[in-house]
Each structure stands twice: as C-alpha cells, then as structure tokens.
Amino acid sequence: MSLDYSPAIAANRFGLGAKPGELTAIGTDARAWLDAQLHGAAPAVAGIGLRDSASILREAGDVRRQLQAQRRAASTDSAATAVPSASASSGELLALVMRLPQLYRPIYSAEVQARLRSAVATDRPWIERLVYFWSNHFAVSVDKLAVLGIAGSLEREAIRPHLLGNFRDLLLAVEQHPAMLLYLDNQRSVGPNSLLAQRAARRERTLGLNENLAREILELHTLGVDAGYTQADVTSFAKVLTGWSLGGGEVARGVQASTNGQFLFRPQLHEPGPQTVFHNRYAQSDQAQGRAVLAGLARSSATAHHIGVKLARHFIADDPPPAAVARIAGAFERSDGDLPQVYRALLSCEEAWHQPLAKYKTPQDYLLSIFRGLQLPVADAPRSIAGFELLGQRQFGPGSPAGWPDRSDDWDGASALMKRIEFADTLAQRLAGTRAVVDLGPQLLGANYSDETRSSLSHAATDAQALTLLLTAPEFLRR
Known about the structure:
By secondary structure, the chain is mostly helical. Among the domains are: 184-298, no CATH class; 363-477, no CATH class. The protein contains 26 helices and four strands. A two-stranded antiparallel sheet has the order 1-2. A hairpin with a 2-residue loop joins strand 3 (275-277) and strand 4 (280-282). Helix 13 packs across helix 14 (231-240) and helix 16 (301-315) crosses helix 17. It starts with 6 loop residues before the first helix and ends with a helix.
C-alpha cells in the first residue's frame, strides 16, 4: 500500500507549522517538497546587531582586562589609603562588572529575534527545524555568562554552514567553536605532562585536566551514553583535547592579533604522546590528534545509532521505532555521515507518515507555529521573544549540555498547558477581528483538523474566543 505523504505532517512535523496557503503549495507529494529543501546551502540569518563571535570576545576581553587592572588598582589603594578611597574603587569595580552583561544582552536578543524572524519567513522550514535539532544536539546554555553573547553565533557559524554537509565536518566545527570551548571550560584544560604543567610544577603550582568537553562529546555528541566507553576513554580523550583553546592577549608573545577570540591550538598546554580512545590508538601530535579522534568517533557505528535514535525520536515518536532507527543509522554508516542522505532516509521511514500528531509540541515549537500560522511580525524588541521564557523554553538556555528534553512527558503537564491557554487567550484578545479564524483551521491543520475543533470554532461567542480555541486545540498542540 502506498503511503499518503500528507502536507499536514510535512508542514507540522518536519517543518515549523504551516503558514496560510502553505499546505496548498506543498501539493500532493509532501515528501518531494521536503526533499527539494535539501538542495543548496542552508539559508543564512540576517539581522540588526548580529556579530561574529571573535569580535564579541575581543570586546569582552578588553572589558575583562580593564576589570583586572581596576581590581589591582583598588587593591593597591585599599592598602595605601583610607576607606573612602577604597569605597570609590568598589563603585568603579561594580560598574565594570556590569559591563559584560550589558554587552551580551542586546547581542543575545538580536540573535533570538533574527532566528525567530527566519523561522517565520522561511520557505524551507525543514531546514530551519534541522538547525534547531542540531543546535539542541550540540547544546550550550546562556545560563553561563561567557556563552550569553555567542550562543547564537555558534548556530550561525558552525551549525548552519555544515547542516547539509558531512557530520564529521559539523562535529569538528562545533567542538572548535568558542561557545563550546568556553561553555565546557576546555580553554582551562592543561595536560599533566605538558610544557605549561612542568613549568607550573617548578613553581609548586598545580594545573588541572578538564574532562567536560571530552565527556560530552562521547556521551552526547557522538557515541551515546550506552556505547560502552569507559572513564579511561574520557580521561584519554580529555588529554587529546588539551591545547584546544582560544586566542587572546598573546600579541606580545608573537601570536597574531587576528587569532583573538577564535579557536587557537596552544601546544604548551597539550599532553604529549599517543592516547587510546574507544579501542583506537591515536599517535598524532598536536591538534591533529584531536581531529583524528573526532573523525574516528564520527565514523563509529555507535554514533550512527545514537544519531538515528535522536532523529527518530524528534521526528517520529517519543519511543523511536527500531526499524526507523536502523534505517537512519544504516544510511549514516553507508554514506560515511553524509547528512542529506541521512535526512532522506528519515523521510523514507513509513513510521514518519503513519501517525499524525505523535509528538507534543515543545514551547518553542508551539510559539513558532503560532508566529508562522498567524504571520505575526517580529519586532526588534525584547517583547517579541518574551513568550519563550514565559512558556518555559528560553532560547539557547537548556541549562545543561544535554539540551532540551524531547519527550511529551517533559512538556505536557497541567501547569504548562494552562500557561499556553493563558498565552493564547491574551494574544487572541489583542488580535481580535484581524484574522478569519474559521478559515485558518483547515489552512494550518489540513487533514488533522478535527470535526470537534471545527464545531467549537463555529460556535465560539467571539472571534477572540475562536482564536483561543484554535491555538489550544489538541491538533494544534501536537505535531
């Protein structure tokens, strides 16, 4: 029996929610509509206030150096003068301390607004959903101040350019990005036998190995927690990654200023010698060793399975069908991580088209589908993005390297539903009379539009009530 490649499933499960007229534009072969989006580079994001990560980090470095100088001056003044002078220095210190959040917050807001604007306007919504998927797979969180200004640039600089390429290149770009290095503190990781550690030992100082990046790459980004790697693998990999750092402040020591704020391999921090990671021995030196380990992990069958499970869970069901996982993982292995072939394998899974509304929308999905369905404008103001935090999914803020959860049980509680109802009602009151709600139902939900919801809307007392009912209908809350 041939499958029904439903436009409603394509737009709402693989996309970000239908726009008015989009289901008609998709036509009779939704799979072909999705496949066509895989051609060409992923669209870039444009917006006022967007900056590259290097320039942001250079400015932040200037602020930190001023803060350090001010602290030294305040310490000297406190020892040599009376308390009033020290108090004045404390005020200046506080002003400097606040400069980093003041620098980062407008950058963060601009990133989220630009991201939202792209999601609302795009005619390649599957590509945008894939951007969100990989951004969550390689999660950093703006709860850490060092990441607040550059989380969006990680997505723009490392994920989007490699989204339709090879997983190996995507993995390398992400792990070398300043946001990931700073989030997991790898710039502070020093090999126990490195040149820097030996110098520190002569001065009776101890510098430490940091395992954060190595652990998260193995557990979250590649193999998966059940792949069978050991603590010894984590430690060995952490040694491999020593020296993966950022440039900044080394001009006087012969390092070009152009490296400031960018990935920089520091050989004096790197642990020398071969390392064994997940059954393979790597004898390369310097940065090449880390690149070789990442390439090996990218080719592992465990990584193929892990990616297959995550894609199937996100696009098909909370409990990923084993046959679908096997199909996706098989395409990953056969193609050596060619991502368009992996995506096409996902599209070919029958399970992806059998059961509509299998996934409960996250707050992010819910808001994106509202913005797209109602064609809401995205203003250059914080109010445009306030809904994400209100509903419990602050952008780039999952709180841990594991990213946001991807199961219905994590999002569909009574309290969360009440917040959505209140949000929808407030929005509906503001938009009352500006949308033909009865016509919107079939345009946004297509074959998923139920008779019960149709009847509820037709009997609504006001336009605002009808819109609230549409935005809180079971088929609008799911994808």
